[in-house]
Amino acid sequence: MDLLGDHEENLAERLTKMVIDNELEDPAIMQAVQTRLPVQHPGGLNSSIWDGSAVLRRIRGPLLTQEMPSVSVLDYALPQRPPQARDEERDLSERALPRRSSSPVIGSPPVRAVPIGTPPKQAAMPNFNQQILCPKPVHIRAPIQQRYPAPYSERMSPNQLCSVPHGRMSPSQFARISGLVSSPLPSMNPKLLQGRVGQMVSPASGFRAFFGAPPPPAPPSAQQQHPPCPGSHLQNLRSQPQMFRPDTTHLHPQHRRLLHQRQQQNRNQHRNLNGSAGDRGGHRNSHQEQMQKDSYANLMLQREKDWVSKIQMMQLQSTDPYLDDYYYQNYFQKLEKISATEEMHGDGPKKERTKLITPQVAKLEHAYKPVQFEGSLGKLTVSSVNNPRKMIDAVVTSRSEDDETKEKQVRDKRRQTLVTIEKTYSLLLDVEDYERRYLLSLEGERPALMEERKQKICDMYDNLRGKMPSQDRPSDDHFVQIMCIRKGKRLVARILPFLSTEQAADILMATARNLPFLIKKDAQDEVLPCLLRPFSHVLYHLPLGTVTSLLQQLANLPHNATALAPANLHLSAVLQNKVLELILFHLAGVSSQTELMLMATRELLRIPQAALAKPVSTPYNLLTLFSRYVDQQKLNFIGPLSSGLGVLLPLVAPCNSLLYQREGKGGCTVTVRITVHLCK
Amino acid sequence: MNYMPGTASLIQDIDKKHLVLLRDGRTLIGYLRSIDQFANLVLHQTVERIHVGKKYGDIPRGIFVVRGENVVLLGEIDLEKESDTPLQQVSIEEILEEQRVEQQAKHESEKLKVQALKERGLSIPRADTLDEY
User: Fold this and answer.
1) CATH no. of B6-130
2) Which residue of A has its CA nearest to B34?
3) Residues of B with CB under 8 A from a CB of A
4) Which GO BP terms apply (chain A) (predicted)?
């Protein structure tokens, strides 16, 4: 009786079977083995661990993780090998080592005999050929989700593939390894490649769902310039709100295409180089010379360079480029817009901008389930890359009001304001993004999007003004707090275009009411001028009554400007000046209410001359209005004017220059008339 | 041939002469032979160049394999422009001596500074004793 507890003739058979590892993948063979299980040796040693299937399976343990590329969760979960699963349950309690979770996606990364960072030993070509040979229809879970060829890291390295014993491989293993075959790039022939570019959209439906637009019709020439096609992907994939991880273990077809084209070109180049005639550029010759002198050149093979490129390209894949790579995408859009407008002017395409292709990949839903064993007490605490462990148990404690000192309260209030600003900023970014989402969405979804947008705008406004509902918003306090912070001011400037007229007017009034305080606080930041443009925009749309009250508000303000330190005088004065000018010019554009004009002009004149800056925007009919004014109320007007004669002239001058540009003589005569009046 | 516009890749730099600055302050000059995805470098015919003032000295080092995380920056050396430099090459012994002198002087001044601060009740922690994270 031997230790294995088997009959001797069976032992010999088993040993031979152990050698031919690959065939164990085949469930048919496995089943055959199991049906020949010997009767367990009664009593004595518990030798069931040495039972046939268990033995064989254990022995090929390390190889298992290599040879079984679980390409998708579904594949892994398919009941392909129920007998094996059942066996495991029985054997687990008796085994020395628990079976490792071999899924690369769920759980710990698998143990590898060949580490992931290993470049291919042999050419990657055989791999692709095998893909053609054995097309396996792949079960695609949903039209959106993608199946790619086996992840590079999970694929058996070509070295292993080629060194299969006896040169045989079971078809199922083959197909599983090569995974999805709908990658349509089998050939390395450039002509074929060009011909097949049209066929790039694979017959498998999964791919078609992914590629919205057809691939570029003309295959890129040797310049490697790829027309940017960011929109095509976006049209077909909508970003989902849940946190899905991108399936970055496979190389996107676009990138693979790039890689192959590069390989093509390299081969062509090398071929050309070898047979170079004298008419090649001098650069090429010197290059060749250099290569000849440098006998250590090309230690890194092209294949290896491509391999590194491939890894880099894989890193560019993301589920939502607009989320992961926001700035580059927007920047490139701006560039495209500029070049489009330039093109429209008839200059022709200025320069072709090559965009970095950051393709969108499908998201895979991952529900991490930690490895569990039947009959064991407790769970394994496994912390891996996909499932990080919580390191710190941080508990949020809320403070009570009594304990705090005054300074703490002040600090908390400021912090509260900062938090409000951040929240409102998030809302703002969302709202600004709605335009893009609108374009991408279906017809049915658009009303919902609009609703969301409106709701967010309301929320933003509430945040700005302080959500304490109740009365009539008696306190501007919340708003002023926000405006004291530099980021808050920029926030208000960006939000203003989205607000409705009354809301915007409300903001304006609040600003006007607290203007001196804000100016004082802004001394360090100097950010208030950024508000001028949106404010002027709002002003243009305001009804007259509002403007009137606004002006009155400004006029009634205590003139703190002069009380301030001289250093601040200029800025604050400029500010007030600008606001007043805005209102003045707006009034001029809207109507000719003499009293108001008078008031505005008086305010304007009170500002010292040095601080009078160029107006923000000058309506062209300003002078006509002035002239009308003069005719109506000669005396009243001239009074203040004469005192501020020197002041007004600079004001007239820029208006004048503008008029010269637009209307010729008309403006001229008006100017003359005014100066005449002024001199009197 | 630009592999990927808008990105940086070392693949174009292979087989060219490079100057590599490491985190510990060493300067290596060599031919970049191989890279990987972590920007680990294989430098061939490497020379460690020590700069002191206007002088420099080269120590031939052979083949270097540099772990990517230790590289501060690297740049290609234009072979034509390499020779017109205002710096003066000296022998290894001389440059090592110069370096030692420079280190000593720096150390002295540092000591004085720390002393002065200590007298005033201040202490600035040294950068190398700070935790990295």
Assistant:
1) 2.30.30.100
2) A300
3) 1-7, 9, 11, 14-15, 31, 33-37, 42, 44
4) deadenylation-dependent decapping of nuclear-transcribed mRNA; P-body assembly
